[in-house]
Structure formats: structure tokens, C-alpha cells
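pipeline/complex-builder :: batch 7 item 3
reading input block
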Amino acid sequence: MNKISLTRYLVEQQREHGHIPAQLRLLLEVVARACKSISQAVNKGALGGVLGSAGSENVQGEVQKKLDIIANEVLIEANEWGGHLAAMASEEMDSIYAVPNRYPQGEYLLLFDPLDGSSNIDVNVSIGTIFSVLKKPEGGLAVSEQDFLQAGNKQVAAGYCVYGPQTTLVLTVGKGVAMFTLDREQGSFVLTQEDVQIPADTKEFAINMSNMRHWDAPVKRYIDECLQGKEGPRGKDFNMRWIASMVADVHRILTRGGVFMYPWDKREPDKAGKLRLMYEANPMSWLVEQAGGAATNAKTRILDLQPTKLHERVSVVLGSKNEVDRITAYHNGA
Ligand code: AHM
Ligand code: MG
């Protein structure tokens, strides 16, 4: 079999299809390289002394794990000197990280959740890195947080790397979704699936059922109907999965369909949701749409939301199109 490496795939996207400029290709290669390092650290686990809490909190008031911090540092160190970026932003940093003056400034902005699914790190369940790439708006002097506040439909690349039984990098540059599996012997990501498609219908939903008593009525209605199975209004039995790593749940949906929900609920009514718009929901929503699925905040398309702050939260419904449309319609009074 003629293996296509990520490098070759990106070169072809640049040279033959003109989908990406050289600087963006470099950026994506650097992110992939960082993901390889994070994958190594994740794999070592207790042997590398990387498990457990770091004893600190991030800006969202969540306890940071050692690997959250390690992954964040790996991504920053890999990306700051290449000349392709103006600044970075991360779930684990309060404010943006402008590329230091000693390095050339590029035209891109990189956002990431360095290690998503932190509660799964110590229990050896799949976790991942999520990333989103924007272009720095033209003009302006020093890069600022304001430059990052662009709707998801402005992304120029997005993806994630899931550290599971295999390490898989999943990428879109706006021309469909491609998956690359890490070949550890070769040390490179190899194209293993192109033109990923999510079936429009599904019999599988993902939601944290322990929050049921806090849900909004339309969410309750949707799940109730699924749970009634063949005898209920949906006329079919549903299966449920909840990995508690969005990367792993989205990866399943890109692989075999399904619907994922982390909706607003009454626990903290002032928060729009648990997940973060700019470095979790936006990149995942774009991947899902590029694979033929849909993504809303239960009312409107996530990619059209105008962010007002870096760490903004959002309600998330994504996956198989017909289910997302149904849940969204229930919220809009249908
Ligand atoms: P994290 O970025 O701090 O890891 O939090 C995000 C994760 C998602 O990956 C996952 O879908 C969700 O939190 C699980 O939350 P819960 O533990 O409430 O089910
Ligand atoms: Mg996360």
C-alpha cells in the first residue's frame, strides 16, 4: 500500500489544490508534531510521572492535571518560534500568549484545549488535543484578545488528536475531513481515512444522564422519546455512550454517527453551558459540518455565534444531521 503521510497530504493540499498557503501547512505540521510529543507523554503515564493533579487551577476554576500543563507547554514551545503565528490562546491560560518579540510574527492565531477530557487522564481512558486556527485580522498593531473573537465560520483549519488505543489526528481545512493514524515505528501520521461522512440518521446518543434532573424541557423530551425505544414515538431502540472526553465522543460520531449533547442546564443557569466555544465547540462543529453533520447551541448554528470573550461557554448539540435538527426544533418550539 502506498502510504500517504500527513506531510505529503498537506503538501498536496497546498501545491496541487491550492487549499492552504505554505504558512498554514507549516503551522499544521507543527501542531501535529506537538501532538506526537503529547501522545508520548500520555503513553508513559505513571512511568513518566505525568499522572495526577498539578495542584493549581485554570481561569475557569478547574483543577489542572500535570498533563494539562505539560500539553500546554509542548504546544507553546513547538509553535512560538516558527514564524507562522501571531499569538496563541488555550483553555489552560487566562489570557492570550503573543509570540515573543525575539521571533518573527506570522499571520495566524492558534487556539487549543491542550488536553481535553482531563478527568479521564488518570483512569487510562481516551483523551485528546483540540485546535482551531484563525487568521489575524489585517491592520492593528499588537495582537490582542479582540483579534481572536471571530465566529467559528472564520476558521481556516481545525482538528483534534485523540490519544486512545490508537493516536489519530483528524483535520479539516474546509475541504472535508481526513484522519491520520500515528505510525509509531515510522514516527509519522499516515492518512487512514479521507472524506469522512456522518450518517444523517442514528440510534446512538451521548449525554451525561446524571444531569437529567437539571435539564431543560426540550432536552428531557428528546431523551425521553429515545428511551421509549421501539414502543415510543421514534419507533426504534437507541443506544447510549458517554466517554466524558469530547474528543473521544466526537471521534465515535465521525466514525459511525450519533448525536452528542452538552446542553445548558439548571445547575449553573448563568453559564451558557460547560464546553468552551472557541477551542472546543467551534473546531468540533466545523469538523462535524465538514463531514455532513450539524452543530447547534440547541437554537442556532454554533459556527455563526459571535464570541464576546476568549473563554466563553456554549451549549452544544452536534452529530447526525436529522437528530441535531430534531433537538434544535424542539428547543425552537416545534
Ligand atoms: P475539560 O476540557 O476540562 O476536560 O472538560 C471538557 C470535558 C469534555 O471533554 C467532556 O465532554 C465533558 O467535559 C465531560 O463533562 P462531565 O464530567 O460533566 O460529564
Ligand atoms: Mg476540554
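note: The pocket of AHM (ligand 1) is lined by residues 62, 91, 113, 116-119, 208, 244-246, 262, 274 (CB under 6 Å).
queue -> next item
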